[in-house]
Amino acid sequence: MTPRHDPDGTRLPVKLDSTSNGEYAPLPLEPVHHEANVRAFASAGENAKRLGLSRREFLVSAGGVATTLLGMNEAYAAAGRTGGFFDLPYDAALDLALARSKLDSADFIFDVQGHFVNPTGAWTKRLPETAKPLQMPKTQQCGPSKGPGRLDYLQCIGPDEFVKDVFLDSDTDLMVLSFVPSTREGEPLTIEEAEVTARIVERLEGTHRLYIHGRVNPNQKGDLEGMDELASRHRISAWKTYTQWGPDGKGFWMDDEPGLAMIEKARKLGIRNIAIHKGLAFGPKSYEHSTCADIGRVARRFPDVNFLIYHSGFAAGKAEGPYDETRTDGIDSLVTSLAKAGVKPGANVYAELGSTWRLMMRDPDTAAHGLGKLFKAVGPDNVVWGTDSIWYGSPQDQIQAFRAFQIAPALRDKHGYPEITPALRAKVFGLNALKIYPVPKDVLEKHLAKDRVAKLREDYRERPDPSYLTHGPKTRREFLNLRAWGA
Q: Could you give the domains of the chain?
């Protein structure tokens, strides 16, 4: 496989690779992706020389990002994929001020899906030897090597790397920590451990920067009863559930008995945001429960509950095209479900982009149709930003790629998709999330700009040192190893 880095360890700032978040098998790169990486490296070397910079210095700059995205444009266009594109002038590759004007922004960014695991948690003691987390050379882990030795992989997805990837190496202002499906005994991250990371950020005076989900699998004994304790002991901002998951491998619909019981308990407890994993199927077993067929039904039945559709129903490895009412999975399943139930845009269903946008970046046609359909179906005020980081490393490349992406005019005219304007991007990046995760006005206007996290970020960016690493599984072996953890 063509690497996305040179033998000297230099990596591209936009991570076009096979990394998965662990919920779907890694997708090998296609020839067009290899071509995009090759074009980007060749151009980066030439542009660095012209500007008198080392390749590393150039790639860390906005010019390096622009060069990479322009290389992707060229490769996609050569392959006939022109439904969307990264809207950057060619001069941005050499004019760093111009590149910054296109790729940097003061947008408020609220990432509603972040992850990490506790690298020393009790769950690790229960793993079979065949599923122990892999150890790899330090040079492949968590940024530049500081010396010889080996580093446990889990350190790369723990709280320290999380804080650096999210709050220093990216423009993210706020994040919601979410959870993976698991048995109660096998959680790779418990809510208590999530709050430890929140306190790490609080010690940096970033008191309001992390929000936390409460994990509920209502088809698992004890979870419905556990909602009361979660709500009383923790600052729960939403409930997170996985309808395809079950302790016996069988999922459920949100309007089945377990789903309805969960909704009613959420209403009773006054936490009426329910984040539901839809799409990114775990496998063929209970596949139907990974689709969005039930979302319109429950949204209409419970207009006082916000249903946050995590991943928007996107099916990994399957392209998105114009809306097809006969398709039963993917984003089309969400569109159909809402239409059948008469749930209008701007109602109580929100489409979240974690992993979805990252996978869409591999195919501008899929990105154009996927985003266009979501903006039409749930409305421009109900699409919310998420990245599934830190499985994909720092989310900065996803942020910068979205800042530049545009749906081709021909597709907008033919299908009624909107132009992605700065105002629409600002809504997706953070303003829409404020409707479901309210943040006090004084925090938005004063605290975020002046806390210690902001100062650390400002100082760090005088000499940034991003790793451009991804941390999720990249091969089937790594994926199966992660799956064996019980996640």
A: 110-450 (3.20.20.140)
